[in-house]
Amino acid sequence: MMRSDFLWERVADTGNGDADGLFLLAPIDVRSLANRLSCDQDIAADGFFSLAMVARLALIRDQGPWAYRQLFWESGLIGQVLYLEAEAAGARATGIGCFYDDPVHQMLGLSDDRWQSLYHFSMGLPLEDSRLTTEPGYDWESAET
Q1: Which of 1, 28, 31, 133 is the most interior residue, by most CB within 10 Å?
Q2: Alpha-carbon span 112 to 1, nearest angstrom
């Protein structure tokens, strides 16, 4: 159902099983595309990788409306595993809540609504954001310090 020009070449395994199930679709630099598809957020382009979790919406027709929630639970579970793996590797990860559905579909070559982009995610090295601060949430927290 995806673009006919995708290569679908299996990524070589380094011997520890890390590449199991990974495929090269196109040998191109997709940083600017990832940035654009994720509402121009640099976190999608500047990390080790970013991804779109794409789900089969026919599941909702087949199993009922509750399946929509199930798809998001599954996306969240994958996200939690990615968070933990990033931390274990000394990196950081984040979900990306803003993305453009239709351009994601166009990029993948999807022409109908059987598959839908549900959640985007990125992993990379942490950067300190000086715009963010940590303040006590309650007066009593200030008194304890």
Answers
A1: 31
A2: 9
> Would you tell me which CATH number, out of the four given (3.40.50.150, 3.40.50.10140, 3.40.109.10, 1.10.10.350), belongs to the domain 30-124?
3.40.109.10
DSSP H helices, 1-138, are 31-37, 43-46, 58-63, 66-88, 101-108
pLDDT digits (tens, 9 = 90+) for 16-56: 666 667 888 999 999 999 999 999 999 999 999 999 999 98
Residue 114: what are its φ and ψ, rounded to 5°?
-65, -30
- Whole-model pTM: value is 0.77
Phi, psi of 119 (to 5 degrees): -160, 140
CA distance linking residue 4 with residue 2, whole number of Å: 6
